[in-house]
C-alpha cells in the first residue's frame, strides 16, 4: 500500500504536528527546511541536473541532441525547441515552478507558511498572493511531494504498527 501526500487530511496533519513535543517539532521543521534546501529540491540544482543529464522533450520524449535546439532565454532560464513536435519547453517545464511568475524566494516563503500551519488566506497575505493562487500552490506542493515520495523505494523488511483505542464517554 503506497503513501499519497495529496490524499492526506491537512487538518489531521496539523493536529498530529501540534501533539509533538517542542523538541520533536523543531527537529521536523529543521528536517523539512534541510530537504527544501537540498540539491534534490532546489531549482538551481534542477536546472543544472537537466543540463548534465541531457535534454528530453517533455511532450514527445525526444532525446536526440540534434533535434532539440536552444530557443532563447526568459528570466535567466534557457528555453528549447523540439524539431519533431515543434513545441517549446524549458528546464522547469513539468516541475513545481512551471507556469509561475513569482520568484523562488516567494515559493520558499509560501512553503514556510505551509510548514507553520498557516491557512491559505493568511499565507496569501504574507506572500502577497491571491488566495486562489495560494490554493493552487498548496496543491502543487502536495502533488510534488507525492511524486517525490512515489519515486522513493517502499519500506522493506519488518515493519511494525500498533493501534491505540480510546473509550469515548459522552457522560456529563
Unreliable runs, pLDDT <50, ≥5 residues? 1-8
Total strands: the figure is 3
Biggest pleated-sheet summary: 3 strands, antiparallel
- Percent strand equals 5-15%
**N/C terminus separation:** 41 Å
Which strand order do you get reading across the main beta sheet? 1-2-3
- The helix count comes to 6
Q: Could you explain the architecture of this structure?
A:
The protein is mainly alpha-helical and 172 residues long. The protein has a domain at 5-37 and 100-149. The chain is built from six helices and three strands. Strands 1-2-3 form a three-stranded antiparallel beta sheet, with no helix packed on it. Strand 1 (68-74) and strand 2 (77-82) form a beta hairpin. Helix 4 (104-115) packs antiparallel against helix 5 (120-127) and helix 5 packs across helix 6. It is elongated. The termini are far apart. Residues 1-8 have low confidence and may be disordered.
